[in-house]
Write a structure and sequence with these properties.
Structural class of chain A: mainly alpha
Largest interface: A-B, 24 and 24 residues
Oligomer: homodimer
Radius of gyration of chain A: 17 Å
Mean pLDDT of chain A: 93
Number of strands of chain A: 0
C-alpha cells in the first residue's frame, strides 16, 4: 500500500480494526464472549464507531488533535476508558495512511519525526480525559502539567514502561516487526480475521512483555504471562484441539484474577496491526 | 429530535445501531454468542461499519442511491448478504434524519411520499447485488426487470409478504408504533442497549409475524414463533431467572432447525428502532 487512502477508507479501516480486535477471543481480555464488570463488550463496539470521524480526518489534523478528538468522541458515547491505547497507536498510523509516498512504515517515520509540543499538549489532555491510571506519570513529564517537550520526546520518557510509548520512538517496531507479520502469516494460511488476530496476539505476547500487566502487577507477573503465551503457541497449530484447550486454559488463568491480569497493551498492538493490514487491502 | 443531524452523526448512529442489534442476544439469530454456518458475527461487524458512508450521505442522495451504495460498500468487505433488510429500512430514516422540520416520523413520511421510479431502479439493483432470495419476487414487479413504478409502489406490491416493504407503505408503523416504544420503555427501566434490544425484539415478534420466517417456512411456522415470543414475555420480567430460562429455551428451539427459523425481519426492525433511538439521543 503505497498510495494515500481517502478519509472515508481510513475511518472504515480504523473502525473495522477496533471491532475485529475486540471481537477476537484474546485470553484475559474483553471479547465477544467475555465482558469485564466495569467495561462491557458493547462499550467497545460503540468506541470503535466513535473513533472513525477523528481518525478519518487525521490527514488534515495534528496527531495530538486527532488523539484528543477521538477520545472526546468516544467519551460522548461511553463513560469508561476503552480505547486510549488504541487511539494513541492509530493516530500516527492514520495520518501516515493519508499521506503519499513510499511504504506505510516510512510514512509513519515521517509523521513521528515531526511531532510537536502542541501534539504533546493535546495528547496529555486526551490522557487526562480518558482518566487512564497507568499511562499518567512518566519520569520527568506528568500529564497533569503542561508539556515542555514534543510528543515523541514525552513518549521516549515512558518508553521503558509502556510499549505503546516505545512504538512512537522505534517507528512502530513491534507493530510492523511482529504483530503485522504474524497477522499476515495467519491470514495467508487461510485463517479468518478473529483467528488471525488471536495468532498475532499470542505471538506478540510471547515475545514482548505486556506493559499494562507489568504496571499493574509487576514485571514478574508480566514475564510469567509471556511464558504462558509461549507454551500456548507450542501446544499445537491453530485450529487443533490441543491449541484450543491451551488457549482456553490460559484464558481461565488470566480471568481467575478478575480483570487484573489482562494484557491490554498487547490487544492494542493487535488493533494497530489490524489497521495496517486492512489499509493494505483497500 | 426535531433538528437535522450532521452526516457524521447519522453515519455514527447507523453504524452503532447495526452493531448493537447484531451483538444483542436475539433468539434464533446471529449474536455475539452465535454464528450461522454461512454468516459469521464478524461479517456483521464489518457490514455495520461499511454502511456508515452511504447512510451518512443520505441527506444528499436519493433513497435508492443510498441503498445501492450501502450494499455495494458492504459487498466490498463481506461476500454474503448480511444487511439488505437493514439498509432498506435505514435509508429513508437516514434521509429523514438529515432533514429539518418536525418529528422524525413526519419527516420519514415526506421522504416516502416523494420516492421515484429511479429509487426503485437503484433499490432493485441493490437487491440483485445482495442476492437475497425472499425479497426478489413480487406479484407484478420482479427485481430482475426494470421497474415501472416508484419504490413505494413496488413496496406496496410486496407489503403483504414482507414487513419491511410494509413499513414503506405505513410510514414505519411497526418501527415507530412498536419497536421504538418497546426500546424506550426498556431503556427507561435502566436496561443496557443489548437487553433493551432484546425486549424490543420479543415485543415486535410477539405482535407481528416474522415475514422472513413466513417466506421460508410458511405462515403456520411463523405464527407459532410469535406465539412462543408471547410465552417468553409472559414468563417473567427482564433480568429474572424465569425470563432468562425462557429466552434460552426459545433460542434453542429456533436453532434446532439450523438457521431456518431465524426471525431476520424482526431483527432488522430492531436495528431501525435502535437507529431512531440513537438519533434522538444525539
Amino acid at each position: 500500500m503505497n498510495r494515500a487512502l481517502s478519509p472515508a477508507d481510513i475511518a472504515l479501516c480504523a473502525q473495522a480494526a477496533c471491532l475485529l480486535e475486540v471481537a477476537a477471543v484474546k485470553p484475559g481480555n474483553v471479547s465477544r464472549y467475555h465482558d469485564f464488570d466495569d467495561t462491557r463488550f458493547e462499550d467497545f463496539l460503540l468506541s470503535a464507531v466513535a473513533v472513525g470521524a477523528a481518525l478519518g480526518a487525521a490527514g488534515a489534523a495534528g496527531v495530538g488533535e486527532t488523539i484528543l478528538l477521538a477520545v472526546q468522541d468516544t467519551r460522548r458515547l461511553v463513560d469508561v476508558n476503552t480505547n486510549l491505547g488504541i487511539v494513541l497507536l492509530l493516530a500516527p498510523l492514520a495520518r501516515a495512511a493519508a499521506m503519499e509516498g513510499g511504504p506505510l512504515r516510512r510514512r509513519v517515520s515521517r509523521v513521528l519525526a515531526t511531532l510537536t509540543i502542541a501534539d504533546a499538549r493535546d495528547a496529555y489532555a486526551a490522557i487526562r480525559l480518558a482518566r487512564a491510571g497507568g499511562l499518567g506519570k512518566v519520569e520527568a513529564q506528568d500529564v497533569r502539567e503542561e508539556p515542555t517537550v514534543t510528543l515523541r520526546e514525552a513518549m521516549a520518557l515512558a518508553a521503558d514502561r509502556d510499549t505503546i510509548a516505545r512504538e512512537y520512538v522505534t517507528d512502530y517496531d513491534v507493530t510492523f516487526g511482529l504483530a503485522v507479520p504474524a497477522l499476515r502469516q495467519a491470514r495467508g494460511r487461510g485463517l479468518g480475521w478473529p483467528a488471525a488476530a488471536l495468532e498475532s496476539y499470542l505471538r506478540v505476547l510471547a515475545e514482548v512483555v505486556d506493559t499494562f500487566v507489568a504496571r499493574k502487577r509487576g514485571g514478574n507477573a508480566a514475564r510469567a504471562v509471556s511464558e504462558r503465551a509461549r507454551e500456548v503457541l507450542a501446544a499445537g497449530e491453530p485450529g487443533t484441539p490441543e491449541r484450543g484447550r491451551a488457549v482456553a486454559a490460559f484464558d481461565s488463568e488470566l480471568r481467575a484474577h478478575g480483570n487484573r491480569l489482562n494484557p491490554g497493551t498487547t490487544a492494542d498492538l493487535v488493533a494497530a496491526a489490524l489497521f495496517v493490514a486492512l489499509c493494505e487491502e483497500r
